[in-house]
């Protein structure tokens, strides 16, 4: 059989891996959108024919893993899309949000292309394509074996603790009468997530497709994440009288921030100031998190039993209305603004950063992975100037980085995730979803752990397995 890599190949976006069996069955693992600058052409063209795909299996709901599903449907795919129940619920809100955002973005892109005399780009998909996509979702919970087709491909999901419903995908594929075990890690979370359970061991595999986002990074020990957050809040909002702007992914990272602030409020430590969750998507995601608390870890479940709600405290304001969002910019008093997206590439957060980046009393705090070519990546890198909506702004606001909120395992945690495997039985280990330099470093670390056949596929590379 063959595996071909159509995204997240030597980069951290656009996850798409195509398995073609000896019988010709085509299984697409994830169908993610490429995010960041200069990715329009990659999102327009898959590199394969959508109507030839038989099945799609999703690892989790993040847009860089699901964001081109409606494009796939628009171009002719009509098969089942398998995922966990929370992933289906999150796709319901995230794909509709994505359709709205990319339509708005396309208007700006095509305006610039018209001025240059370039051909306008086609709309990737619309709300109707999203609704057709959602009808194709088939949900299966963790640890339940299911067949994609009769007696050829069996699949099981296991928990990776990355976001609500995130899963490693384990495929048993019969190839000329012999069963082959293939595991796709999806994105792997951290063992000490404040809300979700830790990543769990998975069955022995012959072929592993493993993420490597932080393949050359070890998260700094965070002795007290809440204390760090409280220090930044007090320094920005109390001492300097400024605003704290936090780009955060709408799923899990936003809820983890709310949970930390909820605890600080209950402990009487949080200053009396307004906290805004300015993201309709995050508000809907929080409701979905509440609905699926059976996936939470024991600590937060114990907290909820005592507190009643881990995502609500005095002076917390959930903002959906556009006019109310704009009014936050006119607010003269100190406050905390948490808004999507986490890489600051789209949504209301870009407006908040633009409106607050020139004030040295304000702080922009980055709490998760940011692609190097994203606005968040530029801020994290310490660039003196950044581009926002086509204009250049000097970075005068303070920039704070708190990686303890990262949803991605570092290299030690990824190695620990792989400890359940006997390296001698792994015939090939593919590294995806990582920058190439990081992947090279991670490859050397994995070789020291006994893995011998490690590949770092480039875009469109095909491998026989």
Automatic annotation (TrEMBL):
Keyword Zinc: no
Keywords: Hydrolase
Pfam families reported in the protein's UniProt record: Beta-Casp, Lactamase_B, RMMBL
Gene Ontology terms, MF aspect: hydrolase activity; RNA endonuclease activity
Keyword Cytoplasm: no
SMART domains named among the record's database cross-references: Beta-Casp (SM01027), Lactamase_B (SM00849)
Span of domain Metallo-beta-lactamase: 13-249
Ranges for domain Beta-Casp: 254-379
Organism domain of life: Bacteria
Name this protein carries in UniProt: Metallo-beta-lactamase family protein
């Amino acid at each position: 059989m063959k595996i071909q890599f159509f995204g997240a190949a030597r980069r951290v976006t656009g996850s798409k891996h195509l398995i073609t069996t000896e019988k010709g069955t085509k299984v697409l693992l994830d169908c993610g959108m490429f995010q960041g600058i200069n990715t329009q052409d990659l999102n327009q063209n898959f590199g394969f024919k959508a109507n030839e795909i038989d099945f799609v299996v999703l690892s989790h709901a993040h847009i860089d893993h699901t964001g081109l599903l409606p494009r796939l449907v628009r171009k002719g795919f009509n098969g089942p899309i398998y995922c966990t129940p929370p992933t289906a619920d999150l796709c319901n809100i995230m794909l509709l949000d994505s359709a709205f955002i990319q339509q708005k973005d396309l208007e700006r892109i095509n305006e610039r292309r018209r001025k240059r005399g370039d051909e306008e780009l086609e709309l990737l998909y619309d709300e109707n394509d999203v609704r057709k996509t959602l009808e194709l979702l088939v949900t299966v919970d963790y640890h339940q074996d299911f067949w994609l087709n009769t007696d050829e491909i069996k699949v099981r999901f296991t928990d990776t603790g990355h976001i609500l419903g995130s899963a490693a995908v384990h495929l048993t594929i019969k190839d000329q009468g012999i069963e082959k075990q293939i595991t796709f890690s999806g994105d792997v979370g951290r063992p000490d997530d404040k809300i979700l359970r830790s990543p769990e061991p998975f069955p022995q595999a012959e072929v592993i497709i493993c993420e490597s986002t932080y393949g050359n990074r070890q998260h700094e020990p965070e002795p007290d994440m809440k204390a760090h957050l409280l220090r930044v809040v007090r320094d920005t909002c109390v001492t300097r009288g400024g605003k704290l702007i936090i780009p955060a992914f709408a799923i899990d990272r936003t809820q983890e921030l709310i949970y930390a602030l909820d605890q600080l409020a209950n402990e009487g430590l949080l200053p009396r100031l307004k906290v805004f969750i300015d993201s309709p998507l995050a508000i809907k995601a929080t409701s979905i998190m509440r609905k699926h608390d059976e996936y939470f870890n024991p600590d937060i479940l114990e907290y909820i039993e005592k507190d009643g709600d881990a995502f609500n405290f005095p002076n917390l304001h959930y903002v959906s209305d556009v006019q109310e969002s704009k009014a936050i910019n006119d607010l003269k008093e100190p406050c905390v603004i948490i808004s999507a997206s986490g890489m600051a590439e789209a949504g209301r957060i870009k407006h908040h950063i633009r409106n607050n980046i020139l004030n040295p009393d304000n702080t922009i705090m980055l709490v998760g992975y940011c692609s190097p070519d994203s606005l968040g990546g530029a801020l994290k890198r310490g660039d003196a100037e950044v581009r926002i909506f086509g204009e250049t702004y000097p970075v005068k606001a303070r920039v704070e980085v708190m990686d303890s909120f990262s949803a991605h395992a570092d290299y030690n945690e990824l190695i620990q995730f792989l400890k359940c495997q006997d390296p001698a039985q792994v015939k090939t280990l593919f590294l995806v979803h990582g920058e190439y330099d990081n992947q090279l470093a991670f490859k050397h670390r994995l070789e020291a752990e006994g893995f011998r056949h490690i590949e770092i596929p480039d875009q469109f590379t095909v491998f026989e397995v």
